[in-house]
Amino acid sequence: MEHPIRQLLPVALSLSLTLLPASAQKSAVQSIEEYRAMLADGNPSELFEAKGEDLWKKKRGPRNASLEACDLGKGPGVVKGVFAELPRYFADTGRMQDLESRLLTCMERLQGLNAAEIAATPFGKGEQNNMTALATWIASESRDMKFNLPQQHVQEKTFYDVGKRLFFQRGGPHDFSCASCHGEDAKRIRLQDLPNLTKNPGDGVGFAAWPAYRVSNGQMWGMQQRLNDCFRQQRFPYPGFGSDVTIALGVYLGVNSQGSASIAPAIKR
Asked: What's the CA gap between 78 and 193, in Å, rounded?
């Protein structure tokens, strides 16, 4: 269970900013960065990393096999550096895949688990919990590495173009798009600065920060859940887990982050 102090920190931060006179208030950016720094030592994501590493090596499923032969883009069993090059095209599936959808392929092929069933499981339940832990550990193995998504294959280029269109596509009852929040500089919501994701937002910002532990709800979120929640805020239906829509957006954001260092798994408000 989450420690009560962690639950009260967001409230205390908001009150401190509200009660101080304007001349004495720090910028929202400074205050949130100090808040994250306080929590960074002992980031709860470390628990998910440990679980994810154990799941990678553990024999499970109908075939009683581990995931140690899984090819995430750099050869069977190679984990270090793969996160910084995903999503990418995989010849064996003939598909563009991000980390989570690629893990689905390995869980089905190597362990005999039902990929469609896992994809249909709500976030935070059953094998989706294991998926988040696996993604968290694998992401941690590329921490501080710079993003370098491949753009050689025709599908990699096509998915970038489609992801860009999706990013700017407006719809829903409020006529929102991803760009409504993340298409310009100097935007924020409540106390949170919103990075401009149409260009390289810098190290550890936007795409380079997920998976991340969310202090406000005590949950670990992977990129699939992060993108799903953006659609929720647009009042759109959730896209399918590992769908071409989410992967195309991941390609667009990942290529725009070219050269930025990953800090995943990060810690978020």
From this structure: 36
CB 88 within 8 Å of CB 156: yes
C-beta of residue 168 within 8 angstroms of C-beta of residue 178? yes
Segment-wise mean pLDDT, segments of 10 residues, the chain, 269 residues: 48 47 54 67 88 98 98 98 98 98 98 98 96 98 97 98 96 88 82 86 90 91 94 89 97 97 91
Residue 198 and residue 195: Cα distance in Å, rounded?
A: 9
CA atoms within 13 A on the CB side of 265: 30
- How would you classify the pairing of strands 266-268 and 95-97? unpaired
Q: Residue 194: beta bridge partners?
A: 187
Which CATH number applies to 45-86+97-140?
1.10.760.10
Strand blocks (E) in 212-252:
212-214, 219-221
Active-site option among 70, 106, 181, 230: 230
- Domains of the chain: which residue ranges? 45-86+97-140
Residue 230 catalytic? Answer: yes
- Report the predicted TM-score, pTM, of the whole model to 2 decimal places: 0.86
